[in-house]
Amino acid sequence: MTVKMVDLYKQYQTISNDIDKAIADVIADSAFVRGRAITDLENDISNFLGTKHCISCGSGTDAITLALMAIGLSKGDEVILPAFTFAAAAEAVALLGGTPVFADVDKTTFNIDTDSVERLISKQTKAIIPVHLFGQPCDNMNRLMDIATDRNIFVIEDNAQAFGAECHLHNGTTAYAGTIGHIGCTSFFPTKVLGCFGDGGALFTNNDILAEKIRSLANHGQTARYQYRYIGLNSRLDTIQAAVLKVKLPHLKKWIDARRKAAHYYSEALKNIPFIKVPHESAKGSHVYHQYTIKVTPQYRDRLRSALDTAGIPSMIYYPVPLYMQPAYSDICIYDRQSDNSLALSECVLSLPIHSELTHSQQDLVIDTIKSFFEKTKSDNHCYD
């Protein structure tokens, strides 16, 4: 039995006729850049999320870069973001001349810690970038928005891993992750919960002025053909990718439900192993399980991963080193000296295969391998705390 981290081909097979037709229609129309599917997709996503504007672009990293350009990030400005995450947001900040400021994260949700954020705010703070990590939306968006509003700071949500996740707000309403801050960003990388067949991304906002500027910045800074108001980027979603995403979007809730069921199956089977902590689900949001990430007692984490590999089961460590310790950022960043959780998590996290087509039989192979490993491991009574 083969187990994959993500089975993109099996997902394609469930909608292959619609995908093939959508691609064929784009080819027949031959408008490969800024074709009709772009506008259609942007409208569909706006309607799905309940935002006024959706602007597609070339990648999730471009989306964050464009958001920072739109708010006027300049040299010396500081942007607070989590130390335990993918490098895209920090990369965008640094490339634009800003200073990445790394906050610690919560040890149970893996998301940015608001106390750490408050410790790091300075007169130079331009923006905060909460990352909805592994599919779990930040459960502190209310407080983050209050902090930002009081200090006139922008909030740019990195929703690349949590498209379709919902946040429960203090006024009793819910909102999709990525729609609460001033700008939301996402990636359509193939392995994402909503992924295309290549690179792609998008931004969301309810602010008309920001939306107009982002559209211009993504198209070489043009306000009209050959009229350049800004120094911009060439960042456009290909029409074929938009057509693929347009077909996929109506299936998203079904696929998320399948991911949740798979995650709960894992958790029920693994929750009583003393050297493992299964993922925490906050009551303040809905997890979409872009990754199913367990915490393993550090002395066993790498050995468990090796045992899974021997059994032909893939796993991943997201992320092995906090960003403030990475050579690219260590000399140019500021970080919270109390970032104990980011470092501790990097030594214990392990992501198991999860996707909407994962079967219980495949999961049982993963589960049995994990249980067998710990049964064969001499207990030293050092359970995970």
Question: Would you give an account of this structure?
Answer:
This is DegT/DnrJ/EryC1/StrS family aminotransferase. Keywords: Aminotransferase, Transferase. The protein is α/β, with parallel strands linked by helices. It folds into two domains: 8-250, 3-Layer(aba) Sandwich (Aspartate Aminotransferase, domain 2), CATH 3.40.640.10; 252-376, Aspartate Aminotransferase, domain 1 (Alpha-Beta Complex), CATH 3.90.1150.10. The protein is 40% helix and 15% strand. The protein has 14 helices and 15 strands. The protein has an eight-stranded mixed β-sheet with strand order 1-9-8-5-4-2-3-14, sandwiched between helices. The chain has a three-stranded antiparallel β-sheet with strand order 12-13-15. The protein has a two-stranded antiparallel ribbon with strand order 6-7. Helix 3 (36-49) packs parallel to helix 9 (239-248). The radius of gyration is 21 Å and the shape is globular. The two termini are 34 Å apart.
